[in-house]
Amino acid sequence: MTAYFRPSNLQAAPSSKPMAPGFVQSRRILPRALPVERLAEAVDARPIPAWKRPLDVTLVVAGLLVLWPVIALIALAVRLSGPGPVFFVQTRIGRNGRPFGMIKFRSMQVDAEARRAELLAQSDREGICFKSRKDPRITPVGRVLRRLSLDELPQIFNVLRGEMSLVGPRPALPEEVRAYPAQAMERLSVLPGITGVWQVSGRAEVGFDEMVTMDIGYARDGRLSRDLVILAATVRAVLSGRGAY
Length: 245
Fold this sequence. Notes:
This protein is an alpha/beta fold and 245 residues long. Helices cover 37% and strands 12% of the residues. The longest helix is centred in the first third of the chain and has 29 residues, at 52-80.
C-alpha cells in the first residue's frame, strides 16, 4: 500500500538501501502506512499540466549534458572539504502529502540535523521555516554553494524521478507541515519545485505568509508561460544572490 504523510504518528527509520560509505548522508523520516485522513481532507491535488513533465525532462536532460562537469567538481569539493558524505538526503513533503527523499549537496556539518532545534530561535526569517544568515552548521564550501544555489543541483534527479518539477513551491519539512495553517495546505496540491515564485522574489527575505500567498497563486495558475518566466528569472536571482544563505 502506498504510504502518505500524515502530520502526526511519524517514526524515524533508516533507509532500507545500503549506500557507499562517505557518499550519502540520510536523515529520512518515514511515515507509517496509515490512511491520509487529515491531508486527504485538507489537500485537493491539482492535475499535473500535460506540458509540465515533457518540459522538465527535456530541460533536465539537456542540462545534465552541460552541467555534469560542474556536478563532478562540486562533488569533489564537498568530499575534500572535511568529514562527511557528498550528498544529503532529507525527507520532504511533496504533492498531495507524499514524502520523498530530497537530494542536495551536503553544505552543513554532519551533525547539523541534531543541532537544528537549538538554533530555531535564531531564525532570520519570519514564520515557520527556519533560515539563519550566520548558521554555524554551514561549512565554508557549503556557504559558497548556498550563495550560488549550487547545493540544490542534485534535485534534478528528483525531477527525473517525478517527485519534483523544475518550477513549483519549495518542498517543506514534515515538522513544518505539521505547523501549517489550513490555507498553507494548498501548497501541497502541486509538484514541489527546485525554483519557484518566492525564490525569484527574494528567497529567504520573503516571510512565510507571503511565500504561501505566492505559492497558492502559482498553484492556481497552471500556465506554461508562468514556468518559463520563473525559469528565466531564476538565472537573474541566482547571479544576484539575494536572500541566499
